[in-house]
Design goal:
With 161 residues, the chain is of the alpha+beta class. The protein has eight helices and five strands; from the N terminus they run βααβαααββαααβ. The longest helix has 21 residues.
């Protein structure tokens, strides 16, 4: 079984703060994932998003920043609660609003991938996780958040199982 964390940049003015509507929006985006990924407005991580978050957590050991911006790319944002009449099979959703997207973009462009990898290398390599895999996620997230921040967009996150 595959499970994905799906990221989608979107203009805040186009978002309804309603779980049912947002789940339908994300479902349509998921169906167009290849085109949206190519456009730099979407990304997804299969199963390993918690490890990507753990990778970014290495920034805690390297930098002293009270805001902990490393938490934003993967788990940042607020949950969008299901409404009373929502379909219980709709995915969990998070919404990272434009100020948080800008913070995440700044973090992703200023943090040193190599320094982070030096902190986690032994642990990640022992688990069979490769540097290249994390470098690709990092670059894709840099592009997604960078474009979204430049456009003043939010990022919606959905978990698909």
């Amino acid at each position: 079984m595959s499970i994905y964390l799906h990221f989608r940049a979107v203009a805040e003015s186009e978002i309804r703060d309603d779980h049912t509507w947002l789940a339908a929006f994300m479902s349509e985006a998921w169906e167009n994932d290849i085109a949206e990924y190519a456009a730099g407005i979407a990304h997804s991580i299969n199963k390993g998003w918690d490890a990507v978050n753990y990778f970014y957590a290495a920034a805690d050991a390297l930098y002293t920043d009270a805001d902990d911006p490393w938490t934003l790319p993967i788990y940042g944002g607020r949950p969008v609660p299901h409404s009373v009449d929502a379909d219980p099979s709709d995915p969990p959703l998070m919404l990272l609003e434009p100020p948080g997207v800008s913070q995440a973009a700044r973090f992703l462009t200023t943090v040193s991938f190599d320094e982070l990898w030096n902190v986690v290398d032994a642990r990640f390599s022992a688990l069979g996780w490769t540097r290249q895999e994390y470098l690709e996620h990092h670059r894709d997230l840099q592009e997604l958040y960078g474009q979204a921040a430049s456009a003043g967009h939010a990022v919606v996150k959905a978990v698909w199982a």
